Amino acid sequence: MGLDSRALTARLEVARSAAREAGQLTLQYFRSARYVVERKADDSPVTIADREAELLLRRRIAQEFPQDAIVGEEFGHQEGTSGFRWILDPIDGTKSFVCGVPLYGTLIGVEYEQRSVAGVIEMPALGESLYAAEGGGAWYAHGDDPVRAARVSSCDRLVDGLFVTTQIDLFEQREAGQVFWDLQRRAATTRTWGDCYGYLLVATGRAELMLDPVMSVWDAAALQPVLEEAGGTFTDWRGNRSIYHGEGLGTNGRVLSEVLSLTRAFATSR
Q: What pLDDT sits at residue 31?
């Protein structure tokens, strides 16, 4: 059965409102002493804000679409029968969150028959939101300003562009440190404005490349439709379209070949 555009639109609307609600919930804890930072099995941080935000998202989705499946970073997988699956990251950038840095976001991806078809990036501490559904374009909202179409930049060379990433030592952990240093030498500017914010920058034309050497599906699901509907690309380091590749490469499309000349060589050598 094909994807029903009305069903997709209905889910995008719920995703947008639920992301706003979850984001506002996180702000109740942001820059406060009202939570304890715990460590998960992989040593990544988690807080009550992560858990409460995901539970809020799950309640909203179950109320509106009880037959949809859900998977989230904090509470695992819930089966469904509709063909739709929601993929949730209540706080993408928990390390930024616990440090009081506003570059964290709430991510909601909507998948249909294993294809990511809608996504929302909500940046509650910045008042920015970016959302898209397959075939409907990408849209950017900031505070009370009018919503506008999101488009990637027209820059076609890294030497004129901005390269962003999340954490440099993750390249070293993957033995891909040379990839980072080669890209930094090529790019006009490099900054670690990472996690989902880096991909938002690419989709809104403020950066040309965002690269992650390590990524989970809940980090990726919202990003692919947003970047592609904004005119960009979201792939693995070999250039394959997927949210399951365990790594992230977001570009404005024009610098993709240049980036792949470095990342593909590394990936195929492993």
A: 93
Residue 123 has which token pair? 């940046």
Interatomic CA distance for residues 33 and 104, integer angstroms: 18
Nearest to 104 by CA among 113, 115, 91, 90: 91
Predicted model pTM: 0.95
Sign of CA dihedral 108, 112, 116, 120: negative
**Bridge partner residues of 121 (DSSP):** 107, 130
Amino acid 89 reads D
* Cα–chain center distance at 202: 11
Which residues in the chain show pLDDT less than 70? 1, 270
Tokens found for residue 99: 């440090």
* Cα separations in angstroms, 228 against 117, 167, 244: 10, 24, 16
256-269 vs 177-186: helix axis angle to the nearest 10? Answer: 160
Query: What domains, with CATH codes, occur in the chain?
Result: 5-149 (3.30.540.10), 158-269 (3.40.190.80)
CA dist 231 and 245 (Å) reads 21
What's the Cα-to-Cα distance from 130 to each of 124, 192, 206, rounded to whole Å?
11, 20, 13
Question: What is the tens place of the pLDDT at every residue in 114-135?
Answer: 999 999 999 999 999 999 999 9
Tokens 């992560």 correspond to 50
pLDDT of residue 108: 98
Closest by CA position to 191, among listed 205, 175, 210, 213: 210
CA-only gyration radius of the chain, Å: 18
- What is the predicted pLDDT for the residue at 81? 96
